Structures are given as structure tokens and as C-alpha cells.
């Protein structure tokens, strides 16, 4: 019996080494996982994009701004004139936080009176919001101590000259479910369409039935449509299911247009379908199709901002995230569901999604047609 087992093991090794594509995936995939987990899976929040409304424009207000900029938590990217401008930049995703220094700040600080500084935080990502919430108060308190150290004879009961009052927008309670569920919708759209489209087409080729279909009058585009349409309906059904559970069970509010949400989800489906068709034109077996799809899931999860904030990643990974279609789909989902923004705010993400869809679908259709020929 031992000899039979050894023979089977030897046969399995021969089978593996005769399939260089699967062998390459088996060796490369762990390296990709290690790289992404080692660099992307971090919760250290640094250099968060921040906008400032300085209504005082005094040396004291500039000193406070410099204190926030000097910390590793905040990077001042813009100065605005209205609270609406702060909200607009946070809605667009250009900034994750903003604060307002009121008029008369310098005068009140010089007189030793308490000053309120409004600090606004994008709460669509509770992990980031929690860190920013604490950091905003910490920097304010440190600045208070510094000011009071410069003033002699200040009693301890007046230690807090600056009272920073953070307000979390979009997700006031910083509930993680409000952050996770929009991301799950993106992953479901991608996983169902890409994985099952690729596997379904490869299965036809693996069993030999696709050759029987090709000799019939059916066109390649008709074959592709027949294979992918059922999975489109399944993916949309699952998205609606997740959305309903999120709303009625987890209490996730939908602050934007549901029709816009579904319409832009359909745009992202084009990209996912293109990836599935492209994989089916490369893979020779269902196992290869599964491994390739799982390989694309790693950057989709880690480089889209689904679990870990992009701001916490190295700069080269942040740049790499721009070629991950799910990044833009995730910004669209969270923008509509949590922030209630419209198409005018999401134009960049929509253009990027359309571009990815056209390019990937064209490449997939071209290669798939050559494979059939």
C-alpha cells in the first residue's frame, strides 16, 4: 500500500510541474500576500489630509495650525473660507478632516480665555475617525500646555486654554458596520461576476462542450452574454440582500440615491465581467481560473481601502492603488450610502470606472475571440 501511495504522490508532483501556470501562481501568490499584508495591513494613521478655515489669521492661529501640521497625524492640504468648503472637500474624499479657528482666537488666547476650535472628521472609516478624534484633542491640549508655559503665574484650573471639540460626520457613533457593508457590496459584485464568469466559460472548455457550441451558428459575443447574464442577476440580488440587511439589521443609513447607487454598481460590473472573461481566456482549467481570480482579490481587498486606510500605507502602495478598479467603486459606494453625495461629487470616480470598464472589456473580448478562433 505504501508503494501505491508513493506512486500517487509522484504522479501528482509530475502533474503539478507539467502545469507551469498553476505552479507560478502557487509560488507567486504567497509573495503577493506577504507583501500586501506586511505593508498594507497597518493601522498607523499618519499624514491625514486636512483643510483649515482660519477666520482669525493671527500669529496665535498660525501657531496652532503649525502645531497640527508638525504632528505626524495631519497634513494641511488647503485653506478655505467657509464651512461648506470643508464639507465639500471631505465629501469628495480630498480631505479626511478639517478644523475652524474662530475670529478673535488670538485675542482670547492672549487674554487667557477658553477658545473653542471646531474639528470635523470624516467618520465613514471608524478606524481612521477614532485615531483622528484622539489626535485632534491631543494636539490641542499640547498646544494649550505650550501656551500656558509661556505665560507665567497661570493656575492649574486654567490649564485648558484651547478646547477642541471634535464632531464626526457621516458616522457619528463610528460603527464599523457602516464602514464594512458598502465595501462588502463591492467585493460581492467583483467576486461573483469575475469568479463565476471565468469558471463557467473554462468549464465549457474543460469538458469539451464549448467546441460543440462553436461549430453552431452562435457568435462568440452571444456565448459570452449567455454565460455572464445569469451571474449579473445573482450579483445584483446579493448586493440588494446585503444592502437590505445593512439597513434593517445593522441600521446603516442610505443617505444618497438608491437608483444612482445601482446604476454606478452596473458600471463597475463591466470591469468585473471583463476581468472574468480575460481570466477565462488565459486559464486552462477551473482550478487555474479560481487561483487567478483569488490572486486578483488580494489587491482588491488590501489596496482599495476596504479594510485598511490608504493613508497608512507606503507611498508606492498608495500610487499602486490607483490602478485597482475597486478603489473607485468603494469610494462611490461609501460616498452615496454614508455621505449622501451625488454624481457631481463622484465625477472622478465615475470617469475612472468607465475607463477601466472600457479598457478591460476590450482587452478581454479581443483575447477571448482569438482563443475561440
Would you mind describing this structure in some detail?
- By secondary structure, the protein is of the alpha/beta class.
- It has two domains: 48-169, abc type-2 transporter like fold (3-Layer(aba) Sandwich); 175-372, no CATH class.
- The protein contains 14 helices and five strands.
- It has a five-stranded mixed sheet with strand order 2-1-3-4-5, with helices on both faces.
- Helix 3 links the parallel strand 1 and strand 2 (74-79).
- It is elongated.
- The two termini are 47 Å apart.
- The mean pLDDT is 79.
Give me the side-by-side strand order of the main sheet: 2-1-3-4-5
Report the strand count. Answer: 5
Shape: elongated
Helix content: 55-70%
- Structural class, from secondary structure content? alpha/beta
**Count of domains:** 2
Helix and strand run: HHEHEHEHEHEHHHHHHHH
| Count of discrete alpha- or pi-helical segments spanning 4 or more residues | 14
Task: Return residue spans where pLDDT drops below 50 for at least 5 consecutive residues.
Answer: none
- What percentage of the residues does DSSP assign to strands (E)? 5-15%
Largest sheet: 5 strands, mixed
Mean pLDDT value: 79
Radius of gyration: 26 Å
Distance between the termini: 47 Å
